[in-house]
Amino acid sequence: MILALALSTGIATSTPNWSEIPGLDIAGGSQASLAPKLSGFLRTIYAQSSDLFFDLNGNGTQEPGEGDLGGFTIVNARLALSGEFDGWVYEVSTDFGGPTGAGSLIDAFAATPRAAGVRLTMGQFQTPFLRSGLVHETRTLLLARTRNGIFYSVRTLGAMVDWEHEGLHASFAHQNGVDGSADEALDTARFEWTALGPADRVYEGSFGLEDQAQLVLGGAWSQDGGLGDESTALAVDASFAMRHWSLQAELVDYEDDYTSTVLFPGEPRGGTTPFSVTAGWAFAPGKWEAALRYEDFDEQTLEREVWSAGLNRYVAGHDIKWQLNYLHADRPTGDEDTFALGLVLAF
Q1: 47 close to 3: Cβ distance less than 8 angstroms
Q2: What is the pTM of this model?
Q3: Over the Cα atoms of the chain, what is R_g?
Q4: Nearest one of 110, 108, 105 to 90, comparing CA atoms
Q5: Are 312 and 141 spatial neighbours (Cβ–Cβ below 8 Å)?
Q6: pLDDT per residue over 185-232, tens digit each?
Q7: Of the four listed, 88, 161, 280, 346, which is most buried by Cβ atoms within 10 Å?
Q8: Can you list the domains of the chain with their CATH numbers?
């Protein structure tokens, strides 16, 4: 179910790594020549389940011709142009993955140079709410983000002011909400403290840390006026990683009206407090890493819980890796078991 949710929204769930936006080559002489960098990645998955069906018609009901889930999906086929000039940064990206394979605009933003640690970003970008949503698709420990991470990894238009200083990072974004360009907005604030280790490492798991340790603590607030009067979400998250081990946890408290059926139909959130815990073990650092995740959706009717287990084989770090996952979902209508194999290649 979590994997199906991620597959259905693959083209809308990417995040720029704000601290690692690549630079541009500047030509000599009096004329400055911008040379944007081309990058991208391919993420393809095979998934099999006798408990789920391929919803060809998108209506949530299994009909004749819609068999059990068992096939290949190109979740992402991403191309991006990005660059930097005198502190100004930009990125424009499109994705040809997802159910239709049609190109879709993902990122389209520009950001000013930092002054006293402060920067302004305008355009289309990801809402700065949860760390699990901010991690790039190619840097995740399992094939799918957490359910909350999926909700907060989509794009929308707006402006953001962020500040960073010696491991502290604060962001405030004012973006279009569920009512689009109407007068009700989606406002989000996030504060993050990197208490240990590198502040610019936005990965899941422990890959690349070697003898270092990293501890990141975060809190966030979000409100979408287009959802109703009680449309606030509060979140806390924490992430710890070292050479062999990693642990991350998150909890989100949604007010009663915080349920959007625009992007995620059939996924109620209002009045719930879902949480997740993810653990990783790099038993062969740099080559093999195992993961285990538990999620409780805190629902009064569906009462869903999901266990996910994964095994990663790193060929060239996160840029080329295999990911084997097993998901087990508990729900009153019956359990769901899904096996999936994914391949990531980034350049």
Answers
A1: yes
A2: 0.83
A3: 20
A4: 110
A5: yes
A6: 899 999 999 999 999 999 999 998 888 899 999 999 999 877 777 789
A7: 280
A8: 106-346 (2.40.160.10)
